[in-house]
Write a structure and sequence with these properties.
The complex is a heterodimer of chains A (about 110) and B (about 110). Chain A has about 110 residues and is mostly beta strands. Helix content of chain A is about 0%, strand content about 50%. In chain B, about 0% of the residues lie in helices and about 50% in strands. The chains are: A mainly beta (about 110), B mainly beta (about 110).
């Protein structure tokens, strides 16, 4: 069964807590992306990685961190420095060709307790 | 800087009526253009894409879009809307050779019976 898996589907964060969102793919795609989605604001890029062991900040990287130790995995950590983390988080993948389509996972909804 | 504008935040059409969702982009070179659809609480699904060639592009679910360079537009159309088309629609432009996408704010489509 191929595709992009995001877990958990729902995640609850307490004040001052770091939480990690998982994104796994078996499409053998080189590039992976994390987006944040808020109502009425479309999708905003948090971080992206075009190759293992390398990643770049997107437009709203503050309060987030990532790692890319394996081609298949691109976890996103929402740190306590992110003061407004409640949102829908989407992971996407893309082949090495930068003109190619991005494919999206099912998303994780993060809520603050 | 690249940007995408979807002028209509919310559109309501009757089932069986035709549909056109507007998208305007700002980009210096020939753009890569995409339309995605998102059902509530789900990831994004690609409807169609334009890279080059024929300016009228056919997609899945009976959708089509026309690239008009002179108007910097990439409007999405469907001749007869079905109730299952109710969703949020996003237009996106490929941002140069980085592989990144710039998304519009989205248009929510409601279908009346």
């Amino acid at each position: 069964d191929g595709g992009i898996t995001q877990s958990p589907k729902y995640l609850f964060r307490k004040e001052g807590q770091n939480v990690t969102l998982s994104c796994e793919q078996n499409l053998n795609h080189d590039a992976m992306y994390w987006y944040r989605q808020d109502p009425g604001q479309g999708l905003r890029l948090i971080y992206y990685s075009q190759i293992v062991n390398d990643f770049q900040k997107g437009d709203i990287a503050e309060g987030y961190s990532v790692s890319r130790e394996k081609k298949e995995s691109f976890p996103l950590t929402v740190t306590s420095a992110q003061k407004n983390p409640t949102a829908f988080y989407l992971c996407a993948t893309q082949t090495s060709e930068t003109s190619e389509t991005q494919y999206f996972g099912p998303g994780t909804r993060l809520l603050v307790l | 800087a690249q940007s995408v504008t979807q002028p209509d935040i919310h559109i309501t059409v009757s089932e069986g009526a035709s549909l056109e969702l507007r998208c305007n982009y700002s980009y210096g070179a020939t753009p890569y253009l995409f339309w995605y659809v998102q059902s509530p609480g789900q990831g994004l699904q690609l409807l169609l894409k334009y890279f080059s060639g024929d300016t009228l592009v056919q997609g899945i679910k009976g959708f089509e879009a026309e690239f008009k360079r002179s108007q910097s537009s990439f409007n999405l159309r469907k001749p007869s809307v079905h109730w299952s088309d109710a969703a949020e629609y996003f237009c996106a432009v490929g941002a140069g050779n980085t592989g990144k996408l710039i998304f519009g704010q989205g248009t929510t489509l409601q279908v009346k019976p």
